[in-house]
Amino acid sequence: MTRAPLRVLARGESVELVGLEFESGYYKVRTARGEQGWAWARNLTIATGGTASAGKTLKLLSSTNLRSSPSTQEAPVRLVQASEPVKLLEPAPQSGYYHVQTADGERGWIWARSAVLVGASTAVAALPAAPVAPAPAAQVAAAAPASEPPPAPRVAEPPMPAPPTARLAAPTTAPATPTTQPAVSAPAAPVPAPRAQKETTGSLQVGDVLNKSTAQLAKGMLPEELLRHYEQGEYENRIVPYPLGGQIWEQSFVDATKHNAQTLTVNDRGTIIDRTTGQQPPYVYGIPFPDIDANDPHAGVKVVWNQFFGVWYNGSVHQRTKMIMLSANRVERELAAEAWFKFYDGESAKYRTDNPQDLQSQFLAFALSPSDMQGTAALSWRYRDPNKRDSQWAFVPALRRVRAVSPANRSDGYLGSDIDADDGNFFDGKPEEFEWRVVDRREGLRVVDPAAAAHQIKPRPIAGGGWEVLTNRDGYYGYQTDGWTGLPWALPEGGLARRPLWVIEGKPHDKYYLYGRVVLWIDAETWDGSYHQKFSWNGEHVLTYQVLGHVNQTTGTAPNDEIIATATQAWVVAENFKMHRASMAGARLNSKAPYDRRIPVDTALFDAGQLTRMGK
Fold it and tell me: Can you tell me the distance from the alpha carbon of 600 to that of 603, in angstroms, rounded to the nearest whole number?
């Protein structure tokens, strides 16, 4: 049973850990006033005290990377599972990391917020705890939960407090039975980062948490159906910095964008054309329409084209990922798939290839598991010619043949999921096949990887060319998070950033298309998609596709080094509000699975005649 909190712990307030008692994600604590209760462990960091000494046992709250140094400059040594015991070697963290030793003797560093101290009497680890002085008890200061920091900050960050001090980034509550005398009660089921009720006036600031106590401050900044998740405690995310000017591009891309602003427009069909010749240019690189006028009747389709070229900038793709189908309270099914995207527009000169068939893109995906789906394959070709519809083929192992598929089927879910071919990276329908209009330009909130938004991740080069663009990290979805009571497909460790967003409506010309209207929320500076709403032909809202932001990271310090979107988390969710379910994609299949961009892709992969062989 959930109990009312005794009170809110103030910013910077220190409390004692009473006997290092830890239960259901909470520490038993004593305040300076003598009150005893329970505080959510991830809101606390060890600051001073005898119990925080070398030799103590750490309990992992989730699986975490073991690193060779207290940073993310090097690749992780390995993933330490949540069930593994580790021993604290040094009492104070360095740069947010604890120096630890695993049960098999490995030494390294783990992110401090992924672990809590436990007492010698707690039966969670095999390693004995070193004796400590009975007093003073460990002092901790509340601090906001955070994800593991990424490598090498590119911009100056506020200095970390020197041990043994720490600060509370946002208040936390201590669940306990209300009483006139300080009392201890068993901890209730935890909700990560509980926050005090805020006033309904004002606005959300960096460091605040959007949850059911503060949701009223985000009205109009999110699709209404997603705001309800926050109002009902089903989603919860911290506001993180990602200011204007936060996106970076290669200089050649910036120069091409400036050139495009003077030379490109669209015709009445919505096709990109050269202003002088009125013809489709043979190749487009850079954002085609950086200056959008809301009063321009073609503004809607121009914003959509900008979104495509922002995606294509990052180059061709090879991924081996999971697709997870979930009900409102659990995982229902998990599939594994391998996919390739080949883009013929939007890439820098280094990566361009011949395009004799005047293609815009090619896509191939086939299922790896479970066994009843294994070998099922889908292939599509998109043409630059606005009058030529996509070519699509499918291979089903039980039928043992390749069959052509109508382009209208691009709106049908893939392998029984709610994710379809026109979702892709965000929206992958052919722009000319919709009628577009601007609904609004507003300040909104979009989901980002806090590490990526801070430009602290360094992409890793791949032998043979290309870049690995997702770090080897796991355990950040709602259903994987200890103490999480919201929706299983939520992203508790994701951040929300205030961004200027275009809201664009599209209506398909094809009356056999599954949806009668789509609404796209697209960043007005980076052109990165965030929310893709889908409505039936009678206007009823059906589904919303939610996408983690793509933030570009530099691969080095030299002026000509490549810049490419990289993250520590992957999250795309198609939530079906009629069926109360969701399909989630993007998670790396395993630590060795490819998650690569700008890689050489053999165009022979996309031959329909090869589907039978690929699907075996």
Answer: 9
> Is pLDDT at 4 greater than 60 in this prediction?
no
Domains and CATH numbers, the chain: 5-188 (no CATH), 311-337+408-596 (2.50.20)
Which helix (H) or strand (E) segment holds residue 446: the answer is strand 434-448
- The answer to whether the CB of 302 falls within 8 A of the CB of 296 is yes
Q: What is the pLDDT of residue 111?
A: 74
Contacts of 92 (CB under 8 A, 6+ apart): 46, 52, 163, 164
The H or E element that residue 224 is part of is: helix 224-231
- Run of H or E residues at 450: helix 450-453
Per-residue confidence band for 222, with pLDDT thresholds at 50, 70 and 90:
very high
DSSP 489: T
In terms of C-beta density within 10 A (0-12 exposed, 13-18 middle, 19 or more buried), how is residue 368 classed? middle
96: left (phi over 0), alpha (psi -120 to 50) or beta: left
| Predicted structure pTM score | 0.69
Using omega within 30 degrees of 0 as the cis cutoff, is the peptide bond preceding 370 cis?
yes
Mean pLDDT of 372-393: 95
